[in-house]
Specification:
Elements (H helix, E strand, L loop, with lengths): L1 E5 L5 E4 L6 E3 L26 H10 L3 E4 L23 E3 L4 E3 L5 H10 L3 E6 L6 H12 L5 H8 L10 E4 L14 H18 L4 E4 L12 H10 L5 E8 L6 H5 L1 H23 L6 E9 L4 H5 L17 H16 L4 E7 L8 E4 L2 E4 L3 H10 L3 E3 L2 E3 L2 E4 L2 E4 L1 E8 L4 E8 L6 E6 L8 E8 L18 E3 L2 E4 L2 E6 L3 E7 L1
Parallel strand pairs: 1-21, 3-4, 3-12, 4-7, 7-8, 8-9, 9-10, 10-11, 11-12
Antiparallel strand pairs: 1-16, 2-15, 5-6, 13-14, 15-19, 17-18, 19-20, 20-26, 21-25, 22-23, 22-26, 24-25
Bound molecules: alpha-L-arabinofuranose (AHR).
InterPro entries: Alpha-L-AF_C (IPR010720), ASD1_cat (IPR055235), GH (IPR017853), Glyco_hydro_b (IPR013780)
Keywords: Carbohydrate metabolism, Glycosidase, Hydrolase
GO molecular function, one term: alpha-L-arabinofuranosidase activity
């Protein structure tokens, strides 16, 4: 097959907001306990943080990590997780039917973010709690001192404020599974009021309101419209969540989910802008795609879990090669919308639907680690409008191109990077791109992630089954890039 990419260095979509490479740690399964925190592990430092895990996270260069949930936050009392550890209560976590020991909480998380070279995106409980609690936690975290909650933080050993800049107003409040779930008008009001009061405490914070918990939930659309109508002036971002699965073992259709994701983003942008127009506002509401990934491998296993254990193996999807292709495609899709998608969180980061897995004997990288690592590392700069002309196939999401591709220009480094997925399972694809505007640019590196087996996985024993390798299938001749994309593959073509 043959394809063409058309770019123009003056046709810029937007500067990439680095927070598009965010991730997520929830109190769920072994994400916290046995994931990032395991005091009894030989790999842990004096605070109990797994250093082997932090090292792998640092390589992903994740600028922001959403915490503490997810569904968990909708029943959480953050006060349970601060202060002397031997006084912290054991509680039921009704989101995941387990026991929460509270041995890791807000202050430990903030210490951990520094070691993992990241920043917090903190969620407040708008399920079982409300405006007052949202005010108190901002006061605890962000005020210098001289008030009850800021002095409490000092008493807990944290003299300086945590100064958390990004806050989520609850989680998936439209979902009937959510503790304290709400109708759209109910949520719109509480989000607006909680947001207003939180910004009274610290006007420098930014706020993310809950959009729909997926595109497929019945209330999608009207939910966004109502919530925005209530809370437009108080919030900065609206959230999107979406997980995909290949339950039907139909890989072309699975990979075509990028079409659905693209439409999802465009639809939410349209609703934000419709409300903007109705309200005659100048400010845009941007998007926070703060839960996205593949999630389905562990569904059956998780049905068998016993209630009220601590940190069980839960949502531990083992990712295969085709999952890595879709993860690359989803990241490319979000980058194409970099003008409005400013924040995104790969859900999640460690053990729970995650790129990083741990055991008592080490930590290793799942297949999806690699597209995330490469795109996070090389996808900084300006997204160029990237027009792909490639053959299409029919899918349940409509016509899907065999090619997902985006170009990122880094003017400071005089570099251009092309990320591309060839979704064709049997044919290679010749890709051309006119680069005469980029005089003298040559291919510096061509990396490819491919595997003959779509279901190949990485394990602790065999961690290197699916890894990117260098190849030399791209060349610039007379200003035109010619690259050969082998069947079922993800490519990073770096030009300088
Ligand atoms: O990421 C796992 C769960 O998926 C989160 O807790 C919830 O927000 C979503 O439904």
């Amino acid at each position: 097959k043959k394809s063409n990419l058309f770019i123009d260095k003056h046709f810029k979509v937007a500067e990439v907001d680095k927070r598009i490479y965010g991730s997520f740690i929830e109190h769920l399964g072994r994400a916290v306990y046995g994931g990032i925190y395991q005091p009894e592990s030989a790999f842990s430092d004096e605070q109990g943080f797994r250093t082997d895990v932090a090292k792998l996270i640092t390589r992903l260069d994740v600028p922001v990590v959403r915490y503490p949930g997810g569904n968990f936050v909708s029943g959480y009392h953050w006060e349970d997780g601060v202060g002397p550890k031997d006084e912290r209560p054991r509680k039921t976590d009704l989101a995941w039917n387990v026991i929460e020991t509270n041995q890791f909480g807000l202050n430990e998380f903030m210490d951990w973010t520094k070691k993992a070279n990241t920043e917090a995106m903190m969620a407040v409980n708008l399920g079982t709690r409300g405006v007052d609690d949202a005010k108190n936690i901002v006061e605890y975290c962000n005020l210098k001192g001289g008030t009850y909650y800021s002095d409490l933080r000092k008493k807990h050993g944290y003299q300086n404020p945590h100064d958390i800049k990004l806050w989520c107003l609850g989680n998936e409040m439209d979902g009937p599974w959510q503790m304290g779930h709400k109708t759209a008008p109910e949520y719109g009001r509480i989000a607006a009021e909680a947001g207003r009061i939180m910004k009274m405490v610290d006007p420098s914070i930014e706020l993310v309101a809950c959009g729909s918990s997926s595109l497929t939930i019945d209330t999608f659309g009207t939910w966004e419209d109502t919530v925005l109508s209530e809370a437009y002036d108080m919030i900065d971002y609206l959230s999107l969540h979406q997980y995909y699965g290949n339950q039907d073992n139909n890989t072309p259709d699975f990979l075509a989910n990028t079409v659905a994701m693209d439409e999802f983003i465009s639809s939410v942008v349209s609703i934000c802008d419709a409300v903007k127009a109705k309200k005659r506002r100048h400010k845009n509401i941007n998007l926070s795609f703060d839960e996205w990934n593949v999630w389905y491998h562990s569904h059956e296993q998780d049905q068998k879990l016993e209630r009220w254990c601590e940190a069980p193996h839960q949502l531990e999807d083992i990712y295969n090669f085709e999952d890595a292709l879709l993860v690359a495609g989803m990241m490319i899709t979000m980058l194409m919308h970099a003008d409005r998608v400013k924040i995104a969180c790969l859900a999640q980061l460690v053990n729970v639907i995650a790129p990083i897995m741990t055991s008592d004997t080490g930590a290793w990288k799942q297949t999806i680690y690699y597209p995330f690592e490469l795109i996070s590392r090389y996808g900084r700069g300006t997204v160029l409008g990237t027009l792909s002309d490639a053959p299409c196939y029919e899918s349940s999401h409509g016509d899907a191109s065999y090619l997902d591709a985006v170009c990122i220009m880094d003017e400071e480094q005089s570099a251009l990077t092309i990320f591309a997925v060839n979704k064709d399972l049997t044919d290679s694809m010749e890709l051309s791109c006119d680069l005469r505007q980029f005089e003298g640019y040559q291919v510096k590196e061509h990396l490819v992630l491919t595997n003959p087996d779509l279901k190949a996985v990485n394990t602790e024993e065999h961690p290197d089954c699916v890894v990117p390798v260098k190849t030399q299938n791209a060349k610039v001749t007379d200003g035109i890039l010619h690259a050969l994309l082998c069947d079922k593959s993800f490519h990073v073509i770096r030009l300088e």
